[in-house]
Amino acid sequence: MKATRPRLSMAALVLAGMAAFALAGHIAATRFIHDQQMRQLHELTEVVLHRSELAVDFATASLDDLAGRGLATCAPASLQAIRLHVYQRSAVKDVRLVNSDGSVICSAYSETLEFDKGWVDRADMLASRDSKLMLFRVEQFGGDALGVLRDIGDKKALVAILGINSSLFDIMPAELRAHGEVLLALKNGARLGEFALEADKALTHAIDFEKSSTRYPLRVIIRIDKSVLSTWNSQAYWPTMTVALALGVLFGILLSRARRMEGPVADLDRALTRGEFRPYFQPIFDLRTREIRGCEILARWLREDGTVVPPMNFIPLAESSGRIEAMTWQLLHQALTDLQPQLKADKDFKLSFNVVPRHILGAGFVETLRSTVAAARVSARQIMIEVTERDELDDLTRAAAVVGELRDYGFRVAIDDVGVGHSGLSRLKGLGANTIKIDKFFVDTITADASTTTIVEMLVALARDFHMTVVAEGIETEEQVRALVSCGVGEGQGYLVAAPLPFAGFCELMASQRTAAAISAQAAGAVLVA
Ligand code: C2E
Ligand code: CA
Ligand code: CA
Fold this sequence. Notes:
By secondary structure, this protein is α/β, with parallel strands linked by helices. The chain has helices at about 5-70, 75-90, 175, 235-260, 265-275, 315-320, 325-345, 355-360, 365-375, 395-410, 425-430, 440-445, 450-465, 480-485, 505-530, and strands spanning about 90-100, 105, 125, 135-140, 145-150, 155-165, 180-185, 190-195, 205-210, 220-225, 275-285, 290-300, 310, 350-355, 385-390, 410-420, 435-440, 470, 490. It folds into 2 domains: about 1-260, PAS domain (Beta-Lactamase, 2-Layer Sandwich); about 265-525, TIM Barrel.
């Protein structure tokens, strides 16, 4: 059970880590892929624009060359030279000489004039940024073209007619071809050329990328179907997710390790919050009559999984981590609540509880004790505070002052584990306690070892001198009871009568003792009557 719990919680943390990282990985991967797609599409738009600008630059260079060679005339020789020039440059379809208003004077290929659907006036042409060129659409039957006009002096101009061929648009990656369109237009909206889908495949949910030239009145638009973006260039998705999941596993393992490292103290805090520290009750009885005179409260940790943890497994940590005070008050409060009716019914019944020296010497101990006991409507006389002398009581003077204060309020104080601790017996006198508790160590050996009997006799004599009572711990046999009684020990506790019991068990024990007492009283009465 204990081993499966950490494994389960580790599995839960690993799963949680994977889920969190998978989510983060998914968000990061989709974001990354989306950003990459946007960047690529912007770049594609730029490529088309750049190619268009290059075509215009090329046309300009051609016109400059022709003008420089004095060919801006309609003389047959000039026209022939221009035709050769055009022939050598596939992008330029034709060159025309025009008037300053844009009207055509002559064409290198005069027959092409028949293919014109229209020819714009200079007023409808758009200037380049440096105003040296005018751009306009040439509508032709074989498809539209781009006219680039360059003034030659004040009266004339040369126009290069550029074919907007598919190479300009041939930039779409194969995956996007069936889902995208590319359009080149003038700034006034006149379309110059496009790579478009067939009418029945028209884009319904498209995203547009647009870019305008800073040098020429040109604009490029790329339109992409949104649906294709979920698959295009998404190769990075699964590698990213795999890395994210691996990181999630690693994170989960590290987290569960970290939790285990901060574990014990955090466990104590959780147990305190949940009230998992419970008082168990061990009877303290009169060694001669076996009558139960009180009980000692012993802490048990009742864990969620049903295990009962003994105090030695958590008291030292509670003490070193500063949780012992809260734990002690929680236990005392619970024990007082449970035992209140018993304490009220029998004013001689005493409740003993264990307090570490550090706690007693700490600020506010006496005050809190008084208010806790008063709130339970229990008399201070019925409360015994057990302080171990196993650990050295560093500040004996201060300890004695606190013991004195406690006694002034009516509380009783017992020195626990007497005989095995650091203090010499004479120091015990200085503390001013009411009771000494002889450690189980002496009870274990009292029947076998004569020197133990001597020590116990000494302790009893000393206690009598100091007006203290004596309780022996860990009594398991009748033989031990006899030996302790002959040494003069008055009270004891041990498995012989009962181990520490949960409250219900302790109530049953008390009830059976009352029944036994009633029967023996009846029997005694019967003997007397007889
Ligand atoms: P302790 O105060 O000396 O308590 C007596 C211990 O002896 C108890 O162990 C009790 O169960 C055990 N015992 C009693 N009779 C017999 C017996 O006949 N045979 C055997 N073998 N053992 C017997 P437990 O309950 O395990 O407590 C151990 C120690 O833990 C206690 O020693 C006490 O020092 C400490 N402790 C327990 N509860 C508390 C608490 O609430 N606060 C503090 N500060 N310490 C506590
Ligand atoms: Ca004790
Ligand atoms: Ca003890």
